[in-house]
Design goal:
The chain is an alpha+beta fold and 167 residues long. The protein is 20% helix and 30% strand. The protein has 3 helices and 8 strands. The structure holds zinc ion (ZN). The site of zinc ion (ZN) has 4 residues, from helix 2.
Length: 167
């Protein structure tokens, strides 16, 4: 069990474009384990990206099943080198982030996304997600490109909110 410290805004590591993973080795497996343990340590947190534990590699873990009333989801998924290849629809969602503990914001996202990725056996996989899970994938994949939800706020005056309590 290795729960890692969360890299917090404005740490420059959150603004880096992460590197692709080319093979599964011990280091990658350890990174996945650490990410998973860190995600599990936060009962209300549904996703994490490797840069959030200071490792700028293209690995994310999502688990939409941790969100109450989220019926349409694929459970806990490890996605290596995820790429969104189709977007559909639009919705607005109030997002938060472990790396930005003081704020939440209303962000516009696609309502459905299709994502290709590699699994932990380095097999190519595809997932089609909608609503909450689609937002989650877009948020975590943004981290791999050095993009935070703060970068996507249209109006800081009307769409950005200070959190009353910490996650
Ligand atoms: Zn985040």
């Amino acid at each position: 069990m290795a729960v890692k410290d969360i890299v917090k805004y404005p740490d420059p590591r959150l603004k880096v474009t992460s590197d692709s993973v080319y093979q599964i080795d011990k280091y990658i497996l350890q990174t996945i384990k650490d990410l998973s343990d860190t995600l599990d340590a936060y009962p209300h947190t549904v996703g994490i990206a490797a840069p959030q534990i200071g490792i700028t590699l293209r690995i994310i873990i999502i688990d939409a099943s941790k969100k109450r009333n989220c019926r349409d989801n694929h459970g806990k998924l490890v996605l290596i080198n995820p790429e969104i290849y189709s977007y559909d629809g639009l919705l607005q969602f109030r997002e938060g982030c472990l790396s930005i503990p003081d704020f939440t914001a209303n962000i516009n996202r696609a309502k459905e996304v299709s994502v290709c990725y590699y699994d932990t056996a380095f097999k190519r996989q595809f997932v089609k997600a909608s609503d909450f899970e689609a937002v989650l994938l877009q948020h975590e994949i943004d981290h791999l490109n050095g993009v935070l939800f703060l970068d996507r706020v249209i109006s800081k005056r009307t769409d950005l909110f200070r959190r009353k309590k910490y996650i």
